[in-house]
Amino acid sequence: MDPSTQTPFSNRLTVLQEQPYNAEPDTAALIAHPYTPDELIYCRNHSPIKSLDAAAFTVSIGGIVQNALQFKLEELKRIFPRVEVVAALQCAGNRRKVMGERKKRNVDGVKWNEGVICNVKWAGVSMRQLLLAAGVRTQSGLHLCMGSHVVACSDDNWFGTSIPLDKAMDEEGDVILAYEMNGRALTPNHGYPFRVVVPGYTGVRWVKWVDSIIVSERQPDNFYHKRDYKVLPQEVTHSGGWWCKIDPLQFNPLNSVVASVSHRSVPTPSLYIKGYAMAGSSGQVKTVEVSVDTGRTWHKADITYQEGRWSWTLWEVSIDISGSLPERVWCRAVDESGAVQPADSDWNLRGLAYCGYGEKDLTRVEGNVGRDCRL
Ligand SMILES: Nc1nc2c(c(=O)[nH]1)N[C@H]1C(S)=C(S)[C@@H](COP(=O)(O)O)O[C@H]1N2
Ligand SMILES: [Mo]
């Protein structure tokens, strides 16, 4: 089927907003796959979803470059080598609901639970190669501005944001202009024909339906870049004059989430716990630890999937329990630099980048837990 005619809606996602379409999967279903299948990939949109005709659509590369270029999908595929990168894509609003509940304070925005993340094998063209072909002049302090003008958004008439040019020019930054996900063309939901993939960076920088790439001394004047996706200080309760004082959020925080807990009675009573972890700016996740006694002892989980610097990490652990069911299960990630996920992170007005310990509350579990069951 032509990818541009596929239906945008999956019955495996919980819809949090109909228009624009915003939906996320259940985390227990999500972590059953190392590469997230299309029907379990969250959808985060600030506009309606456009089905575009790749034969007519062009992406242009310009700004502070020697020769501006523009390409259609077929040309791009013909001229540049196809490169792959496995990278997790996560919305800055992942766990916003948890932040609101823990802090007992309202947070502005879609009340995302913990499923606004996916792990995908992306393929496309190296952004570095593309920029070199355009004769980019590397100098520090420049920005790579990325925009999509195909449809008006809720708070602006186009969608645009930027990343430091250095990230795109870094040979190990792995930024790509993607046209495939998990071996197939991007779907309209996720940016067909082109989206930017910025491994390690928060989802809003991964512009979908991207039609303009500009090297600039200035960051774009777009609502989603200037007046959203910034972690405001915790004392700020009205964003007003604060937006211009804070830099955009770029890297994801080091994070982990408990996705499923099952009780097993044989050979000894135990909890079988599974989840995911996500790396921050200081290296890939090295270990994940789980506690069933509110942090007195930590058990090292087995890492069941991890691939390269930018993938998510899937983990599981079985912990013996004697007597009654613990009240809660906690998890935390540790990265290669030794950085440890914090127990809690600050409240901020938009509920962004929450990264306190992962937790599953078992006090609400009812009935006889002597049986084998999912809790
Ligand atoms: N053009 C465009 N690109 C966009 C967005 C958007 O609304 N419009 N949403 C951004 C945000 S906030 C996130 S988290 C990711 C979501 O990507 P997905 O819907 O493919 O999961 O895309 C980003 N790119
Ligand atoms: Mo996002």
TrEMBL record:
Q: Which domain of life is it from?
A: Eukaryota
Q: Where is the Moybdenum cofactor oxidoreductase dimerisation domain?
A: 254-353
Gene3D superfamilies in the cross-refs: 2.60.40.650, Oxidoreductase, molybdopterin-binding domain
Q: MF terms per GO, please?
A: heme binding; molybdenum ion binding; molybdopterin cofactor binding; sulfite oxidase activity
The residues covered by the Oxidoreductase molybdopterin-binding domain are: 46-224
Q: Does the keyword Oxidoreductase apply?
A: yes
Q: Which cofactor does it need?
A: Mo-molybdopterin
Q: Name one GO cellular component term.
A: mitochondrion
Question: Which keywords accompany this UniProt record?
Answer: Metal-binding, Molybdenum, Oxidoreductase
Enumerate the transmembrane spans: none
A single Gene Ontology biological process assigned to it is: sulfur compound metabolic process
Family annotation (InterPro entries) = Ig_E-set (IPR014756), MoCF_OxRdtse_dimer (IPR005066), Mopterin_OxRdtase_euk (IPR008335), OxRdtase_Mopterin-bd_dom (IPR000572), OxRdtase_Mopterin-bd_sf (IPR036374)
- Report the protein name in the record: Molybdopterin binding oxidoreductase
The organism of origin for this protein: Heliocybe sulcata
